[in-house]
Amino acid sequence: MHLIHRFCPHAPLAGARMGKLWRARLTAWVAAASCASALAAGPATTGSPPAAASVPASATAAAQGPRVLRNLAYGTEARQQLDAYVPARPAGPVLVMVHGGAWVLGDKAEPGMIQPKAAYWTQQGYVVVSVNYRLVPKVRPHEQAEDVARALAFVQREAASWGADGRRVVLMGHSAGGHLVALLHANPAEAQRVGAHPWKGTVVLDSAALDLVSLMRAPHPRLYDRAFGTDPAYWERVSPFHAMQPKGPPPVLFICSQQRPDACPQADAYERKASEFKHRVTIWMQDKDHMQINRQLGQPGIYTDSVARWISSIL
Is the CA virtual torsion 197, 74, 254, 55 positive or negative? Predict the structure, then answer.
């Protein structure tokens, strides 16, 4: 039986440990008194992630901001490029961000997506990487996931030249990008096949495309038809739920919007299957819309600090 803990959505987040399985739920309906209590008490002492390591930066380093290395090629195609935001004093970790866009659009330099994350995490000493990948209809989603894997391998090879540690990488993706990082997370051997090494963890920001078979068999937006077609065998091939392997995945954090009908149930279904393999899975529900889940991450506040704490706990 699962042990489920519910936490105030505005308080520091903690995980409940059960063997190798960690779960945490955020709910918008927790009473204000509970929020105040959680803030006063701080993280739980049993099974909660340790506080995020704080890496102070000098006023000079903060003022000058990160050095941005743009359009680094990890492949031969125009879309196979990434940007690296390198702080003045790298502390080792690397956060790799994969944009969304319904598999057909999006860009690594979109300001609302990358600027808050780059500003926040580089101040903590992280190198922040933003990845482009080829788009549908030129390629299909499994090839997009392979692009992300090749970008990951490139980052791991190049990290030392940026003053970072290629062994301390976290993958993060929003929406369609969340699906792609979840697909690699479910079966890390696919990433390793193109040269990537194990990474420390994965953050999936509000993806409703975890169990594609059930999604495609139910009424769904047409954007999924454009990306995944009509072949059930292909749906299963690119479904993180169905690709899940018993061994290998690192810890994963699913952040899902309570304002949508599908993302949190999809994360729940994934977690139930992953629990059979004792994978370390965390689900945080947020009373934010699909775009706020992405754009508010990196902005000052408990939401960002809590995600940073989870990331720090797995590095």
Answer: positive
